[in-house]
Structure formats: structure tokens, C-alpha cells
Amino acid sequence: ALSLEDGLRLAVALSGPEAALPQVAVNRPSTTMVSSVTGVVLQPSDILDNTHWRKLTGDTAAFETCLEALAGTGVELVAEIGGSDGAGTAAGQWPSGGPDAAAATFVDRSSSFPDAVARAYEAGASVAFAGLFAGETRRRVSIPGYAFQRRSLWVQSR
Fold this sequence. Notes:
The chain has 158 residues and is mainly α. The chain has six helices and two strands; from the N terminus they run αααβαβαα. The protein is elongated, with a radius of gyration of 21 Å. The mean pLDDT is 76.
């Protein structure tokens, strides 16, 4: 629903309780999202304006209500984002009445970024790998083909 830049601007602004929220461009979500404000699945007609984002820092629906709504959609991959709020993780509290934990893959907010991307990819999500390393420079380094080739491989500083 938000570009990475707008999402980061919003996250920084939301960390300050009285901070003015930036104007952000909000698109229709391209995936199923459950609002932690209302506890229901977001519809294309739902407006995700600054009022909605500000509510995220205040009252939130019960975590279990959000998970029940999400489980009812039949999702196969659950990616949790956001800070730790003490509510636990979706994998640990997935509703017993909905699909069981084995029916969905969970990428929780405690995963490292590379682990989260790997788990999402393993679950069948499309990953733009070129974007993961954008801005990094790499170079090839020759290494021996077997363990007993006797020569040093120390990196020389320039």
C-alpha cells in the first residue's frame, strides 16, 4: 500500500506520539491485509489515510481477532511487520479453528531480513533478488578448488 520511502517516513513519524504525519501516497494493497485497528480484512474501498495510520499507535484490535480474520482468508504466507508489542507472534497464536500452523508459512518480525526473504521465497513468494543487493559492490575473488592447494589467500589492502 505504501512505497518503501513513504513507509519509512511514516514509521519514523509514528514513533513520536505528537509528531506531524507526512503526506504519503497510498495505493490499493496488492495482497490481503488485516487492519490491526479494526481487526477485519481491508477492502479496496478502505481509506488508509493519516487518520488510519495514527490509530495504529493508539487503540488496536485484539491480536487474536486479527489472526482469526486473516486465517479466514485462507492465506498461505503470513509476514508480520512492525515493532514488538508484546502480543506474541502469529505462528504462536494461529487460531485452532482456522487453518493449522502447518498450512501457512510464517515470517515473523523476529527474523533477520535475509532469513525472512528466504522463508518467503521458499513459500513461493516472488522475490526481486537484484533489489536485495542494490547499491552494493561486489568483486570476484579466486579461491583454490580444493583444500590442499598450498598458497595464501590473504586480502591485500590498497
